[in-house]
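Preliminary data (for renewal application), 2'-deoxycytidine-5'-monophosphate complex.
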Amino acid sequence: MIVTIDGTAGSGKSTAARKLAARLGIAYLDTGAMYRVVTLIALEDGINLSDETRLVAAAGEDFHLDLGPTHIRVTLRERDVTEELRSMRINDHTRFIAASPGVRRILIERQRDIGRRLGSLVTEGRDQGSVVFPDADAKFYMDAAVEKRAERRMHELLAEGEEVAYDDVLANLRERDRTDASRPVAPLVVPRGAIMIDTSTLSIQQVLEFLLEQLVRLGLDVTPHSGIGEHVF
Ligand code: DC
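Predicted structure:
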């Protein structure tokens, strides 16, 4: 079973996808982390963010994704970079990488390959239901008021020890909304057939219950799988 969750930055996609995958006992794929790791490579190697050839080479680099039902860990150059990928520095630059057609081609292929090999997956991003898995068993589109999303993102960053001001996080999200929706390559769209969910006033538990209800309504099996283990790609 392939379940896609797309939507705006900070709408709660990652938490929802993680919780749903854990509940179903299947793997969780955070595709934003893939764009983020390419960003980290580009910044580390001093690549000009509009140098398509070098960005494509960076996207082809051998980073590892360790997928489980409750986590994704990313290893780059023998270093665990999972936390580093969530920093504001990476936040601020990833949109340039996400706008590269060559990088997208490589990452999309990698995402489809993971889907093929695992068979069951909850995958989360901006184009999972529209481009990567158009025939997914269930597609969701998540959104929330921008102020609410900024609040959540700020608490996340503070919890990770990063000093941030609410206004900066809000401005960053507004800018990302604008670029995600208006970029010429793979703009954020509501996938055809997606079920919409506004998480502004919902708790994580309520979101999870809504997702499960919808899977049941679609006739999908929500009995927890066991022994999914970990998968390294
Ligand atoms: O979901 P996130 O905040 O980790 O995403 C980071 C960036 O990558 C953001 O600019 C949107 C982009 N992205 C994308 O273009 N396509 C995806 N499937 C996932 C993320």
